[in-house]
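Final report, Chapter 2: Outcomes

The project's central promise was a pipeline that accepts a single protein chain and returns its three-dimensional structure in a standardized token representation, suitable for archiving and comparison. That pipeline is now operational. To close this chapter, we reproduce one record exactly as it appears in the project archive, with the input sequence first and the structure output second.
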Amino acid sequence: MTLRRRLVLCALAPTLVLTVACGGDAADSTETTSAAPAAAGAPAGGGTPMTAAGITFDLPAGWTPEMPSSAMRAAQVAIPGSGGPGQMVLFYFGAGQGGGVEANLQRWAGQMVAESDPVRDAFATGAFQVTWLDLSGTLLASQIGSFPATDMPDYRMLAAVVEGENGPWFFRAVGPKATLAEQRDAFEAMIRSVRTG
């Protein structure tokens, strides 16, 4: 384990705070991360406030921050569950960057061979507008060399576009269907907790 990784892991407990600066678009972006003082208090349900890319949200209990595996990721979190681990990623490309709501929902839907029509929902939370997608089926192998390397049947995706001043932000959780079935309400609660950080 590298010294840098050890230092980052030490900074994860008890909370993780990331400050991220991104530029470019979804295909090509850069990011800078640094640890900062943790947000005060803990949300209901035993989760932990997490700050990344200018927003704060309540990370569900048991979800574990990880070192982002690429420069495109403002934050990366492991999701536990009975079906095996899942993963949530927050993408942020800068104010007004990353494409519109419909384009992103269609792109995410295109990453799966869905077993039924995707379920969509939209709501306002504080100063933010959220549009999100829930779909299950086979998660297709990535065409850009990231996860997954092969098609993953019996998977589920929960993905949200959060619009607001200096946004948008893009949350995407993928994992085995059983795991994301258990964590669906936690994902929604996390998205509803988004606030300016």
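Archive annotation: The radius of gyration is 16 Å.
This record, like all others produced under the grant, will remain available to the consortium after the project formally closes.
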